[in-house]
Amino acid sequence: MTQAPSHDAAPVTGSGALMTQGVTMPRLGFGTFRMPGGDCQPVVESALGLGYRHLDTAAMYDNEAAVGAAIRASGLARRDLFVTTKVWHDQLGSRDAIRGAFDASLAELGLDHVDLYMVHWPSAGMDMGVVLETLTRLREEGRTRAIGVCNFNLPMMQMAVDAIGAPIAALQVEYHPFLDQSALLGFLRRRGIPMTAYAPLAQGRAAADETLRAIGDKHGASAAQVAIAWLLDHDGVAAIPKAQRPESQAANLVAAAIRLDDHDRRAIAALPKDLRYVRPPFAPDWDAPADKTPTPRLPASRDRNLKDNVP
């Protein structure tokens, strides 16, 4: 078995997985954002039937119970699945709150552990050391196999990894062909931490892009498939597209087999790279330099009514 990398080497990339902090994370996962309630179950069952083995959910998605039901209905062995869930940032105020949120997620999922437990968004009022220490304890207890964070900017990652020394297994952020994440990617690669791309299709906009369509025509693929292939063409990057129709789920899986050439890469590199579509008011300062004190703009208490707009 390939040895898990330390935080001073690039993630080991297999044919379809990344090794990080002792776990194997499939590079192409299935996202469940905006699939609340029981309607999510048949969608996830379809995805599992097609071959997805990496499922991404969150407490705030209101679908953990449906994801768990789909897992049980699939008949798949638990060891063959990689399940991620997340704690919402209004639960980051204390160790007890985080543990309570984790217990609630496990109960909803009907699982005895998850593979990756992540901070969903940073909170202005959080003590990062306490938050990451609590997640690390859950890892040590075997209740989650790995821990990670979502939507941390560069100075936050510097604090979490370099200052605190937390065993971060992945950073999940918005990433697609219209958004530059090279600064974060460089930081992560130097420390062997994968990036997981949410909104990999730019919330549907990739499908209509003429450049991506032209590249798709050359490869017998759709523009959306090219967008996913572009992400997977990057070392250390995973993607979690969501799709409700089985046809779209299958098409996204096929995207992993597309091999872009240098002409394709140059064409995509020429696309705008400043289009960030997930912009809640409580997001951190994405342009903060690495030496700036990380401070999210607003406290978590403002954001409950925004859950439909933030992956």
Description of the structure:
- The protein has 311 residues and is of the alpha/beta class.
- Helices cover 34% and strands 14% of the residues.
- Strands 4-5-6-7-8-9-10-11 form an eight-stranded parallel sheet, covered by helices on one side.
- Helix 5 links the parallel strand 8 and strand 9.
- It is globular, with a radius of gyration of 18 Å.
- The N terminus is likely disordered.
- Helix and strand composition category: alpha/beta
Strand content: 5-15%
Helix count equals: 10
> What is the oligomeric state here?
single chain
> Unreliable runs, pLDDT <50, ≥5 residues?
1-15, 294-306
- The total of beta strands comes to 11
How would you concisely characterize the structure shown here?
This protein has helices at about 40-50, 65-75, 95-110, 130-140, 155-165, 180-190, 210-220, 225-230, 245-255, 260-270; strands at about 10-15, 15-20, 25, 30, 55, 80-85, 115-120, 145-150, 170-175, 195-200, 235-240. With about 300 residues, it is an alpha/beta fold.
Strand and helix map with partners:
Blueprint: E1 12-13, E2 17-20, E3 23-26, E4 30-31, H1 40-50, E5 54-56, H2 64-74, E6 82-87, H3 95-109, E7 116-119, H4 128-140, E8 147-150, H5 154-163, E9 168-174, H6 182-190, E10 195-198, H7 210-219, H8 223-232, E11 237-239, H9 246-254, H10 262-269
Parallel strand pairs: 4-5, 5-6, 6-7, 7-8, 8-9, 9-10, 10-11
Antiparallel strand pairs: 1-2, 2-3
Helix pairs in contact: 1-2, 1-9, 2-3, 7-8
